[in-house]
């Protein structure tokens, strides 16, 4: 049997608790700034027009069936996913130093990477994650027996990057540690290193022989430019690192529930690199087989249809610019309204930060007040999902923040 001493009651996932409280609120002015999913200007989920097109193409294809995908997933999807992340002209792809496995979205890719490292990594079996990071990183790695440690990331004063703290901790970590990095649109802070800072990080990571693990959930969604959002990953590859990348198509295709993702292992340039990667692919296939046997087809088929058609691809880029552009507009509007209202403090961080989230600097009591008095819902740490803002609710949000800040 399983008494409470052996299976204690687990706390509710804070995000799902927040979503429940929002749903139960009957106020017409309620605003959901918790959810990490894109919303249009009417606070509705948005099916990307290019996804709708791909969907129609798939539905009208009489050849399609529901057979199993190969263990490593749809090749037409994984090969394009690799080109998207690494660049179509990547020397790593040309040298056959990349192996890619389709996964259960970004979460599955992080998990497969963690599992692979847990089984095969002979360096320091500790992963250093940013403080804070996407909360799931902690449990994904600890569940497979990898120790989780943190490096400083967010400077509470500037609400920007604590680059000194970050580099000091990564320098001080034992050699050959695993370093988890968000290449763009850091969750939850919205704060990214500059390209110059990435270059400095690469120097330290190289010196310490650390192993870079990139978790990329927002390519194209952050700046609207797919290459720019992948520039950190591409730079590290240019520098000859052996590394892994977890790639999610949840946000950039709006395919949240379809679970389309990919895991990439990139070998360092070496005479035997292609053989190394072949060995690694064989082990990844075994891990995948025992976990999920075969990845789900639908989301990968949608993404593959778009990624393999130049016309649809450029429409997708347009859709990405719509999403990222609306979010950037909301950042500008929120900042300028807070400044117009002479809200105490500085608000430049709202427009300096990028991607889905902003770390506002609001305190826990302020967050509570916003929820209880103004029906505005956000996580306790003061993170807001920018996609929850729109031209209808932004005045209410700015005025409420003005009032709770003092
Ligand atoms: N990593 C990070 C940093 C994320 O923010 C997310 C999405 N919240 C994911 C991975 C994975 O999301 P999904 O499994 O939905 O692709």
UniProtKB/TrEMBL annotation:
Root EC class: transferase
GO biological process: aspartate biosynthetic process
Cofactors that this protein relies on: pyridoxal 5'-phosphate
Keyword annotations of the record: Aminotransferase, Pyridoxal phosphate, Transferase
Sequence ranges assigned to domain Aminotransferase class I/classII large in this UniProt record: 29-401
Keyword Transmembrane helix: no
Gene3D superfamilies from the UniProt entry: Aspartate Aminotransferase, domain 1, Type I PLP-dependent aspartate aminotransferase-like (Major domain)
EC number: 2.6.1.1
Family (UniProt): Belongs to the class-I pyridoxal-phosphate-dependent aminotransferase family.
Comment field (misc): In eukaryotes there are cytoplasmic, mitochondrial and chloroplastic isozymes.
Protein name listed in UniProt: Aspartate aminotransferase
């Amino acid at each position: 049997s399983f008494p409470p001493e052996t299976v204690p009651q687990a706390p509710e996932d804070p995000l799902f608790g927040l979503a429940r409280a929002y749903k139960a609120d009957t106020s017409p002015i309620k605003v959901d700034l918790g959810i990490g999913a894109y919303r249009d200007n009417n606070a509705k989920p948005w099916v990307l027009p290019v996804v709708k097109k791909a969907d129609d193409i798939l539905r009208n294809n009489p050849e399609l069936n529901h057979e199993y995908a190969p263990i490593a997933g749809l090749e037409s999807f994984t090969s394009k996913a690799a080109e998207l992340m690494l660049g179509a002209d990547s020397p790593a792809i040309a040298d056959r130093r990349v192996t890619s496995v389709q996964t259960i979205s970004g979460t599955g890719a992080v998990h497969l990477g963690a599992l692979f490292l847990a089984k095969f990594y002979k360096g320091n079996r500790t992963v250093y994650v940013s403080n804070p990071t996407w909360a799931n990183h902690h449990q994904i790695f600890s569940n497979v027996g990898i120790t989780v440690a943190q490096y400083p990331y967010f400077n509470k004063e500037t609400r920007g990057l604590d680059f000194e703290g970050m580099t000091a901790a990564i320098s001080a970590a034992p050699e050959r540690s695993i370093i988890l990095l968000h290449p763009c649109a850091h969750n939850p802070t919205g704060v990214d290193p500059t390209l110059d800072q990435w270059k400095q990080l690469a120097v330290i990571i190289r010196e310490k022989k650390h192993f870079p693990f990139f978790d990329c959930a927002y390519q194209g969604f952050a700046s609207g430019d797919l290459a720019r959002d992948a520039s950190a990953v591409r730079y590290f590859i240019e520098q000859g690192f052996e590394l892994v990348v977890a790639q999610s198509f949840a946000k950039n295709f709006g395919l949240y529930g379809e679970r389309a993702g990919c895991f990439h292992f990139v070998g360092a340039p070496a005479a035997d690199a292609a053989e190394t990667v072949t060995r690694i692919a064989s082990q990844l296939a075994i891990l995948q087989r025992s976990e999920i046997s075969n990845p789900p087809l639908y989301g990968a088929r949608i993404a593959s249809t778009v990624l393999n058609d130049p016309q649809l691809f450029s429409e997708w880029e347009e859709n990405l610019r719509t999403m990222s552009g609306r979010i950037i507009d909301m950042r500008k509007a929120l900042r300028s309204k807070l400044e117009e209202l002479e809200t105490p403090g500085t608000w430049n961080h709202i427009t300096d930060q990028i991607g889905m989230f902003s770390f506002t600097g609001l305190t826990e009591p302020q967050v509570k007040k916003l929820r209880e008095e103004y029906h505005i819902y956000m996580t306790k740490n003061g993170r807001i999902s920018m996609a929850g803002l729109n031209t209808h609710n932004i005045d209410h949000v700015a005025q409420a923040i003005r009032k709770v800040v003092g």
